[in-house]
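tokens incoming
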């Protein structure tokens, strides 16, 4: 069967299963099976596909119809122009998180802490964009850190990214301070979990999605330790759910942070809260 026919059949299967962006996903999966860049797939669509590869593609389409994320099928996800390994042990990097990256890069920094680093996509992207910066990523999940280690090594950032197992600030040394702290913590409230898409609810790590409470527990923990670990004049940036900006800003104010601002994503939804340590640098 030709590639174009496979894409058409795969798209029809995904549409029947009510998968969003069915045509896009069918093309991405065929590109993965054929080992060609997605942007060049059109050149291969008129060609006959090896029967063994056709079987693999059909299996992937069926798995996608069962709402397994494309990134879990391909093992890869593009984030801020770089490809990251993704497994069921980590959150699938999302385009809206690039809002945090842009905000972090808007001002200089030499050291960064990423709390709950997961795949490492935030920490490693920031270090790749700032070639003299160093950073630490912490995560309570050893399985997630294994993915971050792989991504760190693939990007050749072993000398600048230190990955440590533990909860929040616990893995840090007592004198560790950073002029940038970032986090995309679990912020889905328990009552919201049932309304998530099957791709997220059924396939991503629950520990990274929800605090099993009101969705704000992570921000309490982050703000509780931030003044010790954030250098004077340094910045804290956290990703939030679109209805959480007021509560998170209030927690930051109570912690002693100043200059608090809310940054929307490309869809106009509140996405990042940023604040500054009021102390003087140097």
């Amino acid at each position: 069967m030709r590639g174009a026919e496979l894409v058409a059949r795969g798209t029809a299967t995904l549409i029947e299963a009510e998968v969003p962006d069915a045509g896009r996903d069918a093309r991405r999966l065929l590109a993965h099976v054929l080992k060609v860049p997605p942007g060049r797939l059109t050149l291969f669509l008129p060609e006959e596909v090896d029967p063994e590869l056709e079987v693999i593609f059909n299996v992937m389409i069926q798995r996608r119809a069962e709402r397994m994320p494309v990134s879990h099928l391909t093992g890869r996800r593009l984030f801020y122009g770089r490809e990251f390994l993704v497994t069921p042990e980590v959150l699938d990097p999302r385009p809206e998180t690039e809002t945090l990256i842009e905000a972090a890069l808007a001002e200089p920094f030499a050291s960064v802490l990423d709390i709950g680093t997961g795949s490492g996509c935030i920490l490693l992207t920031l270090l790749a964009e700032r070639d003299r910066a160093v950073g630490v990523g912490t995560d309570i999940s050893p399985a997630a850190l294994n993915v971050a280690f792989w991504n760190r090594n693939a990007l050749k950032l072993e000398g600048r990214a230190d990955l440590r197992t533990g909860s929040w600030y616990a893995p840090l040394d007592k004198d560790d301070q950073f002029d940038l702290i970032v986090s995309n913590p679990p912020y889905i409230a328990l009552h919201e979990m049932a309304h998530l898409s099957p791709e997220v609810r059924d396939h991503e790590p629950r520990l990274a999605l929800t605090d099993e409470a009101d969705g704000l527990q992570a921000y309490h923990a982050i703000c509780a330790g931030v003044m010790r670990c954030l250098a004077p004049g340094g910045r804290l940036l956290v990703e939030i759910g679109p209805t959480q900006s007021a509560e998170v800003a209030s927690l930051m104010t109570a912690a002693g942070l100043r200059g608090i601002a809310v940054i929307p994503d490309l869809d106009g939804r509140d996405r990042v809260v940023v604040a500054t340590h009021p102390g003087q640098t140097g």
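note: The mean pLDDT is 95.
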